[in-house]
Structures are given as structure tokens and as C-alpha cells.
Design goal:
Oligomer: single chain
Low-confidence stretches: 1-28
Number of strands: 0
Radius of gyration: 20 Å
Shape: globular
Helix content: over 70%
Length: 298
Amino acid sequence: MVTRTLPKVVLFLAAALLLGACATMTRLAYSNAALAYRNLPPMLTWMVDEYVELSGGQKDWVRDRVDRLMEWHRTRELPEYRRFLERVLAETNEPFTVAEIDAAYRDLRRHYRLLVEQALPDIADFMMQLDSVQVAQMEKKFATDNRKFVRESVKGTPDERRERRVKRFVQHLEGWLGDVTREQRELVERFYADIPDLVEERLADRKVRHLETLEMIRARGKREETIARLRRMLLQPDTWRRPEYLRKLEDRDQRFFQMFAALSATFTPAQRAHLQRRIRGYMQDITTLTAAKAGGNG
């Protein structure tokens, strides 16, 4: 499924959404999802500390709030993820339809919204703890990240950049299917040949989020006002993104759904078996995580 990753803001609980952008954690998630999940709290604390130098008390505060979020997620969301995987597993014997892929994507987005909504109060509380020195550190890190984003986005020729995008997607695909055929890779290549990378729009999007984050912290507004601004920034981008960018994103998603539906029609029996084993493995990981916690509470 296609996913969008939030920019690397320092908001420590929103960093939970960065798992897909972290190469080390992504590889670990493919090999041992339960271990990756258990290692998220220290990983997220490290991500925050990368943006602002946390005091000892702030590190403890962050760890405590991350632990609380993980407890909520383990109890409330992991069982829902398992039910989601059960539905997907039931659909794997036949090619996925565009409608099935669209519905699965919307379901994942709904869980993303629930996670962010749960985190918003703690994100707001964290922002209120930052002093002027830490805000300056954050602003500097945002600028560094944006320069890196631009540098990597324009590196090489357009064909070389497109090839890198294809390679990244195929690597993720192999994590689910095993070896990818030449026909399947060519299908992916055709998709990326027709899809612009939207570098300028993505950079503008990042800058808006960065500026809004810094403005919220410096404003020192009331807690509920900050939560409302965070909600708009993180969960209601259609209220501030340019209409033409929203149309481009919608077009990209629909083209992806069509491409993935066509791709699923080419899955070999071995690939379907690999996909089903992967899904069952994640379902077992969820069972292990939730059972271990239940046992600990007992």
C-alpha cells in the first residue's frame, strides 16, 4: 500500500509516523516486526533529541509519554491492525481490485488519524517546554533537513532519480513478495515514468509545517489553541495546501491504486504464498505483543 510520510518535525509523538522513513527500523520491521515495535520508544526519543538537545528531565518526560502512547496503541490499535490484516489476507488469493486497495488505504489513513489525535495533547505539552535555545536548534535542524532534501532530490539526471525511486519501491515490494519478475519491474517503471516527483510542492509543504511549528512554540498560546493548530497542520492539510497540489496528490494515489491492482494480477503462486506468509507473520507478531502485555498485567 502507498503511504505518505510526515516531514521530520521534532514533535516527538508524531515521530511514530517516521518508521517507514527510517531505513534501519524498516529493515528490522521486515525481519522482526515485534522487535521493531518494542524498540520504537528509545528510537523515537533519539529522533527528538536529534532536533533539540533535551535536558535529563525532558528525556524522562518524553520516554514516559512515548510509553503511554505505546500502551494505548498496543491495547487499542494493534487488535484493529490484526483485523485489517485478516481482511487483506482473505483477499490475497485473487488480484486486488482498485476499490479494495482504495478502501485499505483509507482504513490505514483512519488509523493514522487516530494515532495523531491521541498524541496531540502530549505534543502540545512538549512544545510548551522548549526554551529559546532549543527553538533555535530546531530551526537550524529544519534548515539543514531542507537543504539535504533539495540536494538529494536534484542529485543525478531525471532518469537516475526516477531509477532510484523505482529501486526503492521494488525493494519494499520484494519484502512482501520475494523476487520480483522483469514484467513486474517494468510495470513499476512505467508508473514512475508517468508520475512527477513533486519536489517543489513537497519542499513547500515541509517549509509550511516547519514555520507553523516554530510559530506555535514561540507564540506560547493556550494548550487547547495549540492542539487545534496541530490538528489542522497534521490532520487537515486540505485546509492549507494549494488546491492544485491536492489534485496532484489525488491523481498520484489513484494512479498508484490502478498500478498496484494491475501488479497484483501478475503475482505468481510463489509470490502469493510469500505475501500470505508475511501477513500471517505480522498477525502472529501482533498476537505475541498483545499476549505478552496481557500476561504482564496478569
